Amino acid sequence: MTARKSRSDRRIDLIEAARRAIVRHGIDGVHLAHVAEEAGLTSGAVLYHYPDLSELLVEAHHASVERFYEHRMRQISTISDPARKLVTTIRSGLPTGPLDPDVRLLNELGGAAGRNRIYGLLLTTLFDRQVSMYQAILDTGQALGVFDLTTESLTISRNLVALEDAYGYRITARHPLIGPEEAAELILDYARTATGCDLSH
């Protein structure tokens, strides 16, 4: 006999189903029936847990935020060397490949951000949090004499996040010459110039 899932487990399943539905149908094209189909449930069962579909779609976005901010912060929290911390942060901010579901989801939200104020706010918040993450690394590295920054840390940080976004899109768009490793090296090339550090870690 299969044990019934808890309400929290069911909501987690629905968030994952919503993420798959967004990637498959697009943020503007996804409907309640699509999420229900992905979850293997009726539309009524989805509404029981999420009476407002837009709330579920926002929750699906938060799962990607977890990966590109909270998870990265936990990953670098155990690294003391600023140069190694910077390299790790750059590499962990890129898609694993063209089918990376988190990045494809963020691309969908990015396309809708101009039409939906909530999506725009969520993506702006993620961008600003990632910038602050990079800025803390750069400021620490400069204070320790590891980095010799060519300009303000805020400017460099914004450029690093923008490069992540740009190359991430190219990877998911299946650019034939830019995969995760090539993109990482291109961003690191900018970071080496901006920090005066070889970043060979």
From TrEMBL:
SUPFAM superfamilies: Homeodomain-like
Residues annotated to bind DNA: 31-50
InterPro entries recorded: Homeodomain-like_sf, HTH-type_TetR-like_transc_reg, HTH_TetR
Pfam families: TetR_N
Organism phylogeny: Bacteria, Bacillati, Actinomycetota, Actinomycetes, Streptosporangiales
Domain HTH tetR-type: 8-68
Annotated protein name in UniProt: TetR/AcrR family transcriptional regulator
Key words, A-Z: DNA-binding, Transcription, Transcription regulation
